[in-house]
Fold these 2 entries.
Entry 1:
Amino acid sequence: MESPNCTLAVYPGSFDPITNGHLDLITRGLKLFDRIIIAVAVNPAKTPLFTLEERLELIKESLRDYPQRHRIEVDAFEGLLMDYVKRVNAKAILRGLRAVSDFEYEFQMALMNRRLNSDVETFFLMTGMRWIYISSRIIKEVVMAGGSVTGLVPEPVEKKLLEKLNPGALEQERNFP
Ligand code: PNS
């Protein structure tokens, strides 16, 4: 049975798709929390590249050999994040901050979430310097334009991105490895 003192954080996001920056944040988060739930948002206002099922599957595949896998859960949520956080009985939300440009949006979101439930705190962790310039959006842009994202996303994600956005490059790689 789980200890009542076990600390749990929800790490929400679109994860369209998961990047090495996200994985870095999870590693940092696991130094502070016993368990982390990666909560993938079903956001009807956004049109993601990957379906919800694909995003969940890519996260799971990317974590397959992760040493702390047993401390991570992967789930989806719809509607208000704070309703989900309450449902899973968490007291903490984890978010990454890359640069000043992230701050305004994150600040707004954290304050709104606090207004919705002041018992839950948002924890911001600085992304590792290696990943400071990457985002799911820029990764997709680069792949679509024919650039390489090797080393910036987990392997299964790179493969799936090529399949969706640049199938020609994948074919070439197969023929001339
Ligand atoms: O990775 P993202 O797209 O920056 O993640 C944003 C996300 C999913 C965390 C945010 O949009 C969210 O929490 N959506 C759920 C709806 C909600 O609770 N909105 C109010 C919070 S301001």
Entry 2:
Amino acid sequence: MSNGDTTLTPKTSTKPKLERPRLYKVLLVNDDYTPREFVVLVLKAVFRMAEETSQRVMMTAHKMGTCVVVICARDIAETKAKEATDLAKEAGFPLMFQTEPEE
Ligand code: TYC
């Protein structure tokens, strides 16, 4: 400014606000055909679950329709869900694992 007036402009923040990436749930879905023992075997093999936890998760899905197996980053959730579903498919069972974003 030529008349000596000072113009004050607020300093804008230069730090970009990074959103935390969303977490995803892997859901075990119940069906009428896959044997209980096979569901437990897949939970132990793919998700490294202990016998007792696998039994509990399997029974929850059996009774309620679905059960959350794990909550993790999207790429890991999708890879694990596909690996587990493919394992069942190869064995001839309709067992399904799905992923969905957490609230
Ligand atoms: N409902 C199946 C049965 O009675 C067992 C089962 C449990 C299948 C959980 C899928 O996600 C599942 N043989």
